[in-house]
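Bumping my old thread because nobody answered last time. Still need a sequence for this structure:
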């Protein structure tokens, strides 16, 4: 069943945690302890969590419901508090000066957009496999196999190539490839073969994600 998506992910995470403990070398202790912006970390985490909770549950309970609106207001206040704290503390979690850097702002904006595209694409493809093709859980997982296996190869290769080439055109090509993926899936119906559109679309998506996310 679908709960196994989360169980398998948790098993993988624990395995990588154990592997990291064995493989990643320990850094020597520093003479002085680094200052940690605990107040900033708490206000940012709880504030963003409150806003996400409001967006996630607003459809079910209502946007002005007593179960959602107060949480949203508290979340906004905490985020505003976080910005104020970052402007005052000596070692801020997020120094506000970074937002004066145009490259940083552009990168954050593109990262936000591409992650939204990534999540939207996977949700939509899941719906295509389940609702349009009528596939079972395991068959849907196998349908994604080409994407996950190819990503390992493509991302590893791009990690070696990207530092040697101009990144701006690569990022643009990546976003165009991802748009192409969406366009291909828009033509899928119950009579369309997986190999005809869905399979090549997933391959194109791997390269699109690699070209836009890694740079």
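Sorry it took so long. Here it is:
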């Amino acid at each position: 069943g679908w709960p196994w998506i989360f169980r398998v992910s948790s098993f993988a995470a624990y395995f990588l945690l154990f592997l990291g403990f064995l493989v990643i070398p320990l850094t020597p202790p520093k003479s002085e302890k680094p200052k940690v912006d605990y107040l900033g970390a708490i206000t940012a985490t709880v504030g963003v969590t409150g806003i996400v909770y409001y967006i996630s549950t607003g459809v079910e309970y209502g946007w002005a419901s007593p179960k959602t609106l107060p949480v949203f207001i508290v979340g906004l206040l905490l985020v505003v508090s976080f910005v104020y704290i970052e402007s005052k503390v000596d070692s801020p979690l997020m120094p506000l000066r970074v937002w004066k850097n145009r490259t940083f702002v552009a990168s954050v904006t593109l990262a936000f957009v591409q992650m939204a595209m990534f999540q939207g694409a996977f949700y939509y493809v899941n719906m295509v496999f389940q609702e349009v093709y009528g596939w079972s859980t395991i068959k849907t997982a196998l349908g994604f196999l080409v994407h996950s296996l190819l990503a390992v190869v493509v991302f590893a290769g791009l990690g070696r190539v990207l530092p040697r080439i101009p990144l701006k055109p690569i990022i643009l090509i990546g976003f165009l490839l991802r748009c192409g993926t969406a366009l291909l899936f828009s033509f899928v119906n119950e009579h369309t073969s997986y190999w005809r559109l869905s399979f090549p679309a997933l391959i194109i998506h791997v390269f699109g994600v690699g070209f836009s996310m890694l740079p």
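Helices lie at 3-23, 38-61, 69-86, 102-132, 137-143, 145-161, 167-185, 194-213. Let me know if any region looks off to you.
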